[in-house]
Design goal:
single chain; elongated
Length: about 140
């Protein structure tokens, strides 16, 4: 017959498994959210896409130039991939319980989100976040 100590150890192992699975799911959702945000962002010089930053614990408040400067979307793919790579690297370091912040501090990101560019619909940020939420709704527990 199993002892109370055996039961306690099984419960602790199960709790640790749950925490690891939640951490894995949070990381996956953050990756999807970042990717959706980056790819949905209109591109001209690449600056708006390059300014999506992922940071752990506190928001990134910086603004930067494009990873790969260009004109009329010529470097869209390169800037997108660099922004997504930055996010993946940051998200991979997330510890259990740590907050993930995805931010874009350009002074005109709000205007882009309001529909100032013909390349993206208004509220593209909200739509990208909703797509990430849908990933959560479809998430399955990995054992």
């Amino acid at each position: 017959m199993p002892s109370l100590g055996d039961f306690s150890r099984r419960i602790r192992r199960r709790a640790a498994d749950i925490e690891r699975n939640v951490n894995r799911t949070v990381r996956q959702v953050a990756l999807v959210a970042d990717r959706e945000l980056v790819l949905a962002t209109p591109v001209d010089t690449g600056r708006a896409r390059s300014n999506w930053f992922v940071n752990l614990g506190v928001p990134n408040r910086s603004v930067s130039e494009p990873y790969f400067p260009g004109e009329k979307g010529s470097t869209a793919s390169s800037n997108s991939q660099a922004a997504i790579d930055q996010a993946a690297e940051a998200i991979s370091r997330r510890q259990i319980g740590q907050d993930i912040y995805i931010s874009n501090n350009l002074d005109y990101i709000g205007s882009l989100n309001d529909g100032s560019s013909a390349q993206a619909p208004a509220q593209f940020v909200e739509a990208a976040v909703q797509r990430a939420v849908n990933v959560v709704k479809g998430a399955q527990v990995v054992r």
